[in-house]
Amino acid sequence: MIAIVLRRLGSVLLVMLVVAALSFLIFNFLGDPVNNILGVNATLEEREALRRALGLDQPTWVQFWHFLERAVVGDFGISYRNRQPVMDLILSRMPATVELVLCATVLALAVGVPMGVYCALRPRGVLSRVLQMVSLIGISIPQFLLGMLLILVFSVELRWLSAFGRGEVVEIGWWSTGLLTDSGRKALIMPVLTLAVFQISMIMRLVQGEMQEVLRADFIKFARARGLPDRAVNLRHALRNSLLPVVTVVGLQIGALIAFAIVCEAVFQWPGLGLLILQAIEYADFPVMAAYLALVGFGFAMINLTVDMIYLFIDPRMRRK
């Protein structure tokens, strides 16, 4: 098992090295950092002085090494647009996105897994057919359209919820959360639903398909022949053996939601990482773009590592590989 963990850690380090190289290329070769910092009216002497201060007069491999040294401690320079350290910007926006994604994931699992189990056990039932039709709609509807429909109904027509913003938040150290205030919880409802609808539909269909496949396996027939109750067969044996692909997809979706919650955050003006990177692209804020790429790469690598560790606990056979 230790060898498996070490191999996974080696893969994580390799992935992060590749991501760091891509971030370095964005930071150094997409635009001129000196021009972005000083502007077009700076003198030649000011440009050369800043170029030496930033180390841009050194060979590329030396610049890359210094970039790695700074990235390890979270130093990605100064934002061109906001004129403050990039990591401070990211850390100030991270709680909003993480809270949104985790709430959407918990909702998707709490709703999608039971729906998938029910549809697998009663595939010909009326409710199962209705749930499958609803899940098809949930997968098909674009995220931005769903968000705007929710705003139209609950904000414009009914006036129950705010159409934008995060509501009132509580500061806990450097972390901020809206879960402890009424306005913060209300502000979460529509963005969470917008993100969760697709995840619920996908998880439901995945659990249904995997569980139906497992229910046809020989060991399930043997368990029933031994006289085990249906609850034990369905939940302890069939559902557990259906969870590996679910864990994989959910893990990857958490990373994807953190990385690509741009549409949802733009629709609801949610002050998270998605809105930050959208503004960085609009203003060609390359340090923020490079830091965001590194952060997303690290997040995906750690999520994949966590999924692999969960595999080892769900399926003991994985420990022998």
* Shape, per Cα inertia axes: globular
Profile the largest sheet. Answer: 2 strands, antiparallel
Reported by name, the CATH topology of the domain at 86-284 is MetI-like fold
Kindly state the percentage of residues in helix.
over 70%
Total of DSSP H or I helical runs spanning 4+ residues: 14
Structural description of this entry:
The chain has 321 residues and is mainly alpha-helical. Helices cover 75% and strands 2% of the residues. The protein is built from 14 helices and two strands, in the order H-H-H-H-H-H-H-E-E-H-H-H-H-H-H-H. The protein has a two-stranded antiparallel ribbon. The N and C termini lie close together (8 Å).
Short description:
With 321 residues, the chain is mostly helical.
Write the layout of secondary structure elements.
Elements: H1 2-29, H2 33-38, H3 44-54, H4 60-72, H5 86-121, H6 126-140, H7 143-157, E1 170-172, E2 175-177, H8 182-215, H9 218-225, H10 230-241, H11 243-260, H12 262-268, H13 273-282, H14 286-314
Antiparallel strand pairs: 1-2
Relevant terms:
321 residues, mainly alpha, MetI-like fold, 14 helices, 2 strands, 75% helix
